[in-house]
Amino acid sequence: MYLVVKGKPPRKNARYRIGTVGNRARMWDSEYYRDFVLRLQREWVAMGSRRASKGSWHIHLVSYWPRVRKLDERVPYGDIDAPVSIVLDALEAVGAIDDDVRVVSAELHKRYDPDDPRIEIMLTPTVQTLVRQNTDS
Question: Looking at the 3D structure of the chain, how many domains does it have?
Answer without folding.
Answer: 1
